[in-house]
Every structure is written in structure tokens, then in C-alpha cells.
């Protein structure tokens, strides 16, 4: 389904409510606005397979931009609003977005991005405008709120960093379905079948909309006619207050949010009425077992977990009771057939650790403009088996357990941070000879960024140099990528192939912390 169905049957039902202010967008307003925007883009010459990008805070009109793209056969790319201008411009240019939508809250970043854009002729700003951008609302108002003559279903193309250090767009083939074809519901199907979500549900979003899970589950909820309650940012107390105020039935969080909720005094936590909650879904990062046990003890056996990736190669799901019976598992497959393979690609029996592949009966995703990375994600003998490099095993009943993560990717607060990007940045510093970056455990965020640096001869290995290197990263990359800690070594250990022995470095760092 799609929101137009509910615009006809329940036009005044809230499609979006801003948690802090109560500002509401009804299903009729969402339908009309997304139709106007789709008409405008068609008049500008956008056609099936073209790209649009949005750079915005959690905004009540975020969803109309998404649905305008998806009902026009377009790809939509949500840009992380915390990136630097160079990082954001790279994504907009790489996806070749013909339209960029932003907001006045994003003015500083949007203006900084503008000179770097190479092929984005149409640029619009909500809630006001500055030089270089047209007023979004006025431009859209010139078009009638009627559907396009043809409405092929589009898709999102979100970005995930690659081994080169530059983000890579994760592009799935368009299905060829129309927007109202129920087979194209995507996350809406799983929101219904796994979580029991429907028209009477209220789904709370505490995460940023550029995050894959936040965007996909939100639009999945709207595909079912549910009401989406959108927080501008996560705050533990505000999160609980929103559940009580809006009678929230479903929500999706990352484990860091669990930690912050549990840090509230018990009396304060228990002062909120959470009785409407039916399902609390967590994903995006490993959850410490002790934290999950505490959450289940607090809110009941409604804490479930989903494992997947932006790539959409497969999905596993586990309920609270299943997890209590098999602590540490991320569940059984609900999309795709999992296979555990050794380094040669040979399937392994239950209990043996190897690379996790998922088999699908559709053409897998590809990494935009990166054929090598796409090829690396495929099984050597089965073109429709794909992996993101995670390592784990299946038990005899088909439950998946993860034992490692791809390429030492750091997950901090549910956000993926890729060491190669930070290493590339630090390597360009004139005082750095070599560098390795990896994550170390953090009780609240899950992990933090740690760098081991080999300095050029004569450079002092002291706190002043460390701060100078951190400041250098801060000027080139987003703030959450800046190493919290930097240690120095005389020479990084490397294999004969030239690869850094990161396992050795990380083990040494962990022993030092013990």
C-alpha cells in the first residue's frame, strides 16, 4: 500500500506528528503535497531512474519528499546532516542528484555545499530561502495535487562507507511495479508481519531520518496507514514522555538509547505510562546482553531484534522469548536464505564460523560506481548470494549468531564509522607516517574511535601532537569520526602482504584497558 489509500479512506488521520510541538501532517496533506512535488519534478524533466537528494533535520515535510520520489520512479538519497561540506557534496555529486532539497536550519551546510555541486541544477529550501536556492513551498504550490499519469515505484539509495574511505551508494534495481502494487510494500510488509503494525498503530521515531532503519521503518509504517511520531533528536526522558503523550504502540531504537534510558533513575522511568507499547525493536548495532536483559525486565517481553543492513541482502528477526532461550542470537531468516561459508566459499555445517551470505531470488544490490566492491560482495560461485562481510554461525535450528563485524567497522551509538576513511585523512597529515584506526568498547556508545599513529622522525609523541591530529581530522571529517584517543608507536605491525595487523593492535589496546 501507499499513503494515497489512506488519504481516500481516512484523510484526517495524522500521518506525521512532531513529538515536541504536536505539529501534524494528515494523510490528505501528505498525499496532496507529494503529488504536487511529483508533478513539479516531472515538469523539470526528471524521469524514472533519476535521483533526488534531501539534506534536512527531522522535519515534518521529510516524508512528502520521500513519497514524491518513490511515486515517480526516482531514487532518493538522504544525506547525513552532520557531514562536512566536502562529504555531503561528494554524496550529492556521486548519486548525480538532479534535485537537492534542504531547509533553512541547514543553511550553513547547504551554502557550503553549493559551490561543490557539479550536476544538480534544481535546488530548493524549505521554511525560507537564501541565494542559490528556490523557495520550496512556493515552487511546489504552482502544481496541482493530482497523481502523475504513470507512477512507477522508486526506491531509496542510501550511502555506506567503503574500503576506499569514500561512501558508496547502495543501489537496488527498480522493481517495475506501480506505487499501489501491494507487493512493493518493503518495510511495511515486515512492520505488519513481524511487529503487528497496522492502521491503528503509532510508531515513534527517535533516530535521524538519514539513518536507513529510521527512514525505512517510518515509511513502512505509513504504507500501513499508521501514525509516525517524529522526534527531532533522542532524549531519554522526552522519549518516554512521547510514548505516554501519543499512546505509542511501536518504536525502533539502537542499543545506545537503551543504555541512556536505563541510566534514568528508576523512579523517573517508572513514572511514565508505557502500557500502550506493543513492540520495541532494536537494530543497527550489537546490544550488550546485560542491557537487553534489563530492558526486558523493565518493559516486558516485547523487546525484539532485527539484523540486516542498508544493502538489504537479507533479514533475521528474533523475539524476546527466543532471545532469552538463545542469548546472543540475532534470530532466524525472514528474508533470504542464510549460508555460512569458508574463505573459499564452501558451505560450512551448523556451529562453524564463517562469512555470512544471504541467498535471494532477485538481483542483489550493487555499490554505485564501484564494480570491485560489488564483486567482493558476491559469492564466488553463486551470483545471487551476497554478503556485507559479517562473520558468524548458524545453530542446528537456523538461528544466526554474529561473532565479528566487517572490516573492523566501528559502531558508535548505532552509527557506522569506517576506519579506512579516518586512516586516509590522518595519512595525509604531514607529520604522520602510518596509521591504524579501530574501535574500543564504550559502556554507553558501544564503541569509540581509537587511532594508533606512527609519526615521522622528530615529531614529539605527546598530548599536543595528539590534539593537533584530532583537530586536523575535525576540519576534514564529521565530528563523530574524530578519534577520542590516539596512541603512538614506533612502527605499525604489518603482514608480508602489507596489511596492518589490526587484531594484534586491538588486542594490545584491550589488554591495556583491562
What would you say this structure looks like, in words?
There is one protein chain. This protein has 514 residues and is of the alpha/beta class. 31% of the residues lie in helices and 25% in strands. Strand 27 (446-455), helix 16 (463-476) and strand 28 form a beta-alpha-beta unit. Helix 1 (3-9) crosses helix 2 (27-43) and helix 10 crosses helix 12. The longest helix has 17 residues, at 27-43. The chain is globular and about 65 Å long. It starts with a helix and ends with a helix.
Terminal CA distance reads: 52 Å
Tell me the radius of gyration: 23 Å
Structural class: alpha/beta
Arithmetic mean of pLDDT: 93
Helix content: 25-40%
Named at the architecture level, the CATH assignment of the largest domain is 3-Layer(aba) Sandwich
Q: Work out the number of β strands.
A: 28
CATH homologous superfamily title of the largest domain: ANL, N-terminal domain
- Structurally, the number of domains stands at 3
Entry keywords:
514 residues; alpha/beta; Rossmann fold; Luciferase, domain 3; GMP Synthetase, Chain A, domain 3; 3 domains; 14-stranded mixed sheet; six-stranded parallel sheet
SSE map:
Layout: H1 3-9, E1 14-18, E2 24-26, H2 27-43, E3 51-55, H3 62-70, E4 75-78, H4 85-94, E5 99-103, H5 107-113, E6 122-126, E7 134-135, H6 136-141, E8 155-156, E9 159-161, E10 167-171, H7 187-193, E11 202-205, H8 212-223, E12 227-230, H9 236-246, E13 250-253, H10 255-262, H11 266-270, E14 279-282, H12 289-299, E15 303-307, E16 315-318, H13 320-325, E17 329-335, E18 337-341, E19 354-359, E20 366-367, H14 371-376, E21 385-386, E22 391-394, E23 400-404, E24 410-412, E25 415-417, H15 419-427, E26 432-442, E27 446-455, H16 463-476, E28 485-488, H17 502-513
Parallel strand pairs: 1-12, 3-4, 3-5, 4-8, 5-6, 6-7, 11-12, 11-13, 13-14, 14-15, 27-28
Antiparallel strand pairs: 1-2, 9-10, 10-20, 15-16, 16-17, 17-23, 18-19, 19-21, 19-22, 22-23, 24-25, 26-27
Helix pairs in contact: 1-2, 2-3, 4-5, 7-8, 10-12
